[in-house]
Amino acid sequence: MPRYFFDIRSAGSPQDRDDEGTECADLAAVRKAAMRVLPDIARDDIPKDGDRQTFTVVARDEDGQAVYTATLTFAGLQLLR
């Protein structure tokens, strides 16, 4: 089964490069894995760093070719002072 690598990028932080990878049967499985990882990253990082954040995952194949990307954006606004 092919192995794919899921690199994470967030504004203000260095890229987190995946050197281990995950086996996925096809590109549909890569898409689902990317969709699962973004909320997990955001859940941990949003409380640490303010009300405007963007998280991006870039999936690479074994040759290093990007095959899928997804971005999750968080925007919070305090309404009362």
Written account of the structure:
The protein is built from one helix and four strands, in the order ββαββ. The chain is an alpha+beta fold and 81 residues long. The chain has one domain (3-75). It has a four-stranded antiparallel beta sheet with strand order 2-1-3-4, with helices on one face. The longest helix has 19 residues, at 27-45.
Count of separate structural domains? 1
Unreliable segments of 5+ consecutive residues: none
- Percent of sequence in beta strands: 35-45%
Strand order of the largest sheet: 2-1-3-4
Helix-strand makeup class: alpha+beta
**Roughly what percent helix?**
10-25%
* Dominant shape: elongated
Brief synopsis:
The protein is an alpha+beta fold. The protein has one helix and four strands.
Q: What is the topological layout?
A:
Blueprint lengths: L2 E8 L11 E2 L3 H19 L6 E9 L5 E10 L6
Antiparallel strand pairs: 1-2, 1-3, 3-4
Jot down its keywords:
single chain; 81 residues; alpha+beta; DUF6894 domain-containing protein; DUF6894
